Amino acid sequence: MFSHKKFLALAALLVAGLASQSAMATTPANATLTNTATLTYDGGSVADSVSVTVELLPAAVSITDEPAGGTDSATENSTYTYTYEIVAQANGEDTYAITFDALVLNNLTGNSAAPNPVSNITLSATAADTAATSQTTISVPCDDSQDSDINGFVGGAPGEDVDVGGTITTVSSVDDNPTGGCSMTFADPVTVSVGTLIAEIATFDVTINDVGEDDGGGSPTLTYTVNITSTTDGAATVADTVVISIIAVTFTKFSANLTDAVTGGGSTETYDIDGAGSDFSSTTFYENGVSGQPGDIIAHVIVITIPASGTALTNASITDVLPEFVTYQDVANDSVGTFVDQSVISDAGAGGDRNANFPLTAGHSLGTLNANTTTRVGYSVQIDP
Predict the structure, then answer these.
(1) How is the chain split into domains, by residue range?
(2) Is 324 in a helix, a strand, or coil?
(3) 209: phi > 0 → left, psi -120 to 50 → alpha, else beta; which?
(4) How far apart are CA 86 and CA 61, in angstroms?
(5) C-alpha closest to that of 184 among 197, 171, 196
(6) Which helix (H) or strand (E) holds 298?
(7) 37, 102, 202, 295: most buried by Cβ count inside 10 Å?
(8) Which secondary structure element, helix H or strand E, spans residue 20, and what is its range?
(9) Cα-flanking dihedrals φ and ψ of residue 341, to 5°?
(10) What single string gives the DSSP state of each residue in 63-131?
């Protein structure tokens, strides 16, 4: 006689095997797996079936976009933001909590703020149940309900971004039709095997509204740790720790009217401007408030200062696009003379456009600016007559 007990024992072995496969997130949660055994004999046959519903096996997400090497940088007192990208690794829909450890501050002062809270993120996942090559519509197991979604995937506009066996695409639509077979359609062709994971991609921002400022102790840093944890199983978690180097730098632009001395406002810098046809000794440059008439020559000085306790700036470059109604005055222009580090931005050549021969239009490399240094770049323009 056929024994249901023996068959249930076989079903138990089947479930154990599924659990092993689910650890690799290849057997979708909510799929119904039906196994039918048939006994045939002279004169007839008997059959019996059991169905196994696959459960969610939580898994830590994969972080696919994070600060390289666990390091980053930010200017002191600035807002720091990094956009993380994560990909589901579980075998079905799960929700993840985003939490942060306490910040670790090194040689910082001021109001270093905790990261802004991040809402929970729900990620969908399933897997292909039929192999296919370069197809946009893929057969997948139906979930345990006919409700226009498959393990959380709904498609439509704009659709969910997904990783299908390494191909990044978007879910265009889903067909949740248990009687006719369930499927998903993607914006791009994909190639899958049975069990290829279809995993939703999501992003979230780590934002720190104020990273603090250099306290003078040297090499200031701020360290944060973000945790991404399944709300179904706290053991399914991943963390990312990032050390942010805090850059202390002042960047100020000063101006002076060389044709008609004008008193401006804000902080000041004083320079001697020497050259054939000009003698502007101890010329005062102002942070703001300088004015001029058409035809006047306006000199500018950009000052970059890094304190002794600061961090060197690497691959530094400076860009300055001239506004309408001014024309760059070549370094060789006798009426302007040379001053500060004007030779650093030696002329790139003549051109008809007011910016064509202005060396800072497309950006000028300053290389590495070390701690305890001040770099100055100067140039002059004429207000168009």
Answers:
(1) 4-53, 57-247, 250-383
(2) coil
(3) alpha
(4) 6
(5) 171
(6) strand 297-306
(7) 202
(8) helix 4-22
(9) -105, 45
(10) EEE--GGGEEEEETTPPEEEEEEEE--SSS-EEEEEEEPPPEEESEES--PPPPPEEEEEE-EEE-SS-
**CA distance to 21, 231, 312, 359, 361, per residue, from 368 (Å):** 52, 46, 7, 19, 20
- What is the chain's pLDDT, residue by residue, as a tens digit (385 residues)? 434 433 344 444 344 444 444 335 479 999 988 899 999 999 999 999 999 999 999 999 999 999 999 999 999 999 999 999 999 999 999 999 999 999 999 999 887 778 999 999 999 999 999 999 999 999 999 987 777 899 999 988 788 999 999 999 999 999 988 777 899 999 999 999 999 999 999 999 999 999 999 888 888 999 999 999 999 999 999 999 999 999 988 899 999 898 888 899 999 988 766 543 455 567 888 999 999 999 998 888 888 888 888 888 888 888 888 889 988 876 544 344 344 444 333 333 333 334 445 667 777 778 888 888 888 777 788 899 9
Residue with tokens 């000794």: 281
Cis before 359? omega within 30: no
250 CB-near residues (< 8 Å, 6+ apart): 303, 304, 305
DSSP assignment of 159-220, as one string? --EEEETTEEEEEEEEE--TTT-EEEEEEEEEEE-TT-EEEEEEEEEEEES---EE-SSSS-
What is the spatial distance between Cα 164 and Cα 160, in angstroms, rounded to a whole number? 12
Which DSSP helix (H) or strand (E) runs through 283? strand 278-288
For the stretch 125-161, what's the b/e string if a residue is b when 16 or more beta carbons lie within 10 angstroms of its beta carbon? bbbbbeebeebeebbbbbbeeeeeebbbbebeeebbb
Radius of gyration of the chain (CA): 33
